[in-house]
Design brief:
Residues 22-190 form the Flavin reductase like domain. The chain has 203 residues and is mainly β. The chain has helices at 58-65, 79-84, 107-111, and strands at 20-21, 23-28, 34-39, 42-45, 48-54, 68-73, 88-89, 102-103, 115-116, 125-126, 131-142, 148-160, 180-183, 186-189.
Length: 203
């Protein structure tokens, strides 16, 4: 039996975030303290992760001066911590174009999250996040509109809570962890498994 095809109309989404993991990115300020920002635009190939970040944010400013960072993936139970960071910036004074933002010096404290020392970079990880990447920026490219940077970072080390790993391995098991997913400006967690790639080592 042929599957019925959907009907399509012209849509006008307020954003093009069709669904992807939210993350918390930590960078180092000039005075050695840490900045923490929520983000959701990224993709990965091999050990390289590409991040889409606002030009006006403190994160890009830090990465252009100090390339190290951590990328921390929250689970659904941390959504309130992520939301507490919304509308805040680590830049002072607040830059033009970010009038709805307010300056916050200590984003970890504001979010109610604990900094955790990294092993290869001077930037802390987010202790509550069950999956964490230590990374170093290798290239930052301005986007064609001037509003964004595409930051290519080499992941140097991955840390995971053992509870989300396949027992006896270092492989994250997607059945053991549900990341916080950002979809059209709403947050969800992953649900029922619907399939896997044949090459999956956790199938």
């Amino acid at each position: 039996m042929d599957r019925p095809l959907p009907s399509h109309v012209v849509a006008q989404p307020e954003s093009l975030y069709v669904g992807g993991s939210a993350y918390l990115i930590a960078t180092q300020n000039a005075d050695g303290t840490a900045n923490l920002s929520p983000a959701s635009s990224y993709w990965a190939l091999g050990s390289t992760i590409v991040l889409g970040l606002e030009v006006a944010g403190k994160t890009v400013q830090n990465l252009l001066e100090r390339p190290e960072l951590t990328i921390n993936f929250p689970s659904g139970d941390l959504v309130d911590a992520v939301l507490r960071l919304d509308g805040t910036t680590g830049r002072y004074p607040v830059p033009e174009g970010k009038e709805r933002y307010r300056y916050e010096a200590d984003k970890f404290a504001l979010a109610g999250l604990q900094p955790q020392a990294s092993e290869l970079v001077p930037v802390p990880r987010v202790a509550e996040c069950r999956l964490q990447f230590e990374a170093r920026t290798v290239r930052a490219t301005p986007g064609h509109t001037g509003e964004w940077f595409m930051v290519e970072a080499e992941v140097l080390r991955v840390h995971a809570d053992p509870r989300i790993l396949k027992p006896g391995t270092g492989l994250p098991d997607p059945r053991r962890w549900s990341p916080l997913v950002y979809e059209f400006r709403h947050f969800f967690t992953t649900g029922e498994e619907r399939g896997h790639l044949p090459k999956s080592q956790t199938a």
